[in-house]
Design a protein that fits this description.
The complex is a heterodimer of chains A (about 10) and B (about 220). Chain A is elongated, with a radius of gyration of 7 Å. Chain A is low in regular secondary structure and about 10 residues long. Chain A has no helices and no strands. Chain B is mainly alpha-helical. Helices cover about 70% and strands about 0% of the residues of chain B. In chain B, strands 1-2 form a two-stranded antiparallel ribbon. The chains are: A little secondary structure (about 10), B mainly alpha (about 220).
């Protein structure tokens, strides 16, 4: 599953 | 965080520094596409809406504010401030950005990660960033020769996403559930658009960093 929750990149 | 992503962010910051220096010290926006700067402002303002609820690190939040502030300042200076605003040529810098914004908005609606409003806007910003450099590249093609600082600006901007590509490869092989097909695809397209420029930039800078870049 795409780790969309945690957007840890700019 | 890994070295590729850190260097990518530094290269992105460098591109802002070069451009801000050029338009404030050089007092001229000649050769710079206001259209591209407007697209970047849209990209950052739409992507970083999560500034208010997605706190992943101080580093991220700080740079999100910096990128929104810098891109807005650049657009303001080129559009409204004298003497820079008189150096912008609307006849030359006339790329129809609605043909970029429209399809990216549709793509963001159709292809995103979670079907929530933010995810659609976020995907839109990722797709738009991939093509945002086009007005700038078209302007450089029209002018044929690229002013020195402008060439370093475009090179730093291209290097930033190129380094991000390496960061994604690194993360894919070192993290177990890392999957970001949207940014991988868009980032590849974005970096691909610079390849022609990088070729001419490398050819011209081999004889010395301050030689102008000639585009065919």
């Amino acid at each position: 599953k795409e780790r969309s929750r945690l957007k840890d990149e700019l | 965080m890994n070295i590729f992503r850190f260097l990518g962010d530094m290269s992105h910051i460098l591109s802002f520094v070069i451009l801000l220096l050029k338009i404030t010290q050089g007092k001229s926006a000649a050769g710079i596409s206001l259209r591209t700067q407007e697209l970047y402002m849209i990209v950052f303002c739409s992507r970083y809406l999560d500034l208010f609820w997605n706190f992943s690190s101080l580093y991220n939040s700080f740079l999100k504010v910096v990128f929104i502030a810098c891109s807005s300042a650049i657009v303001y200076i080129i559009r409204f401030k004298s003497p820079q605003k008189d150096t912008w040529n609307p006849e030359l810098d006339n790329f129809p950005i609605q043909y970029l914004i429209g399809p990216c908005a549709v793509a963001g609606l159709l292809i995103n990660q979670d079907w929530t409003p933010f995810e659609m806007i976020w995907a839109f910003s990722i797709y738009l960033e991939a093509v945002a450099i086009l007005p700038q590249l078209f302007l450089l093609q029209k002018q044929g020769e690229v002013e020195n600082l402008t060439s370093h600006y475009v090179a730093a901007l291209g290097a930033y996403r190129g380094l991000y590509l390496m960061n994604w490869v690194y993360r894919y092989f070192t993290e177990d559930d890392y999957l970001q097909r949207i940014v991988w695809f868009a980032g590849t397209v974005q970096t691909g658009l610079y390849i022609d420029f990088f070729y001419h930039y490398y050819q011209s800078k081999r004889g010395g960093l301050s030689r102008p870049v000639k585009l065919p």
